[in-house]
Design brief:
Blueprint: H1 2-8, H2 15-40, H3 45-67
Helix pairs in contact: 1-2, 2-3
C-alpha cells in the first residue's frame, strides 16, 4: 500500500490506503471466484464472460463513485 499512500500524500501506516487496496482486491477476487464457480458448473464461457463483465462494471462503477477521487493529485 505504500504506492497508494504515496499517491494520496498520506503516511504509509494510514489505514485508508489499505482499505482502498483491499476493496479493489476483494472485488477482483469475487469476480474471479464467480467466473470459476460458474465455469466449473458447466456454464457457457461466453455467457459467463458477458454477464460478469456487466456485473464487474457495475461493481467498479460503484467503487468509483466512492473511491474514484482518492489519491488524485490536485
Amino acid at each position: 500500500m505504500p504506492a497508494i499512500a504515496h499517491e494520496a500524500g498520506v503516511a504509509e501506516d494510514d489505514l485508508v490506503p489499505l482499505v482502498v487496496a483491499r476493496t479493489l482486491t476483494s472485488t477482483h477476487r469475487l469476480v474471479y471466484r464467480a467466473a470459476f464457480t460458474r465455469l466449473m458448473a458447466g456454464e457457457d464461457q461466453l455467457t459467463v464472460a458477458a454477464d460478469l463483465r456487466k456485473q464487474a462494471e457495475r461493481a467498479y462503477d460503484q467503487l468509483d463513485a466512492g473511491l474514484g477521487g482518492y489519491g488524485r493529485r490536485r
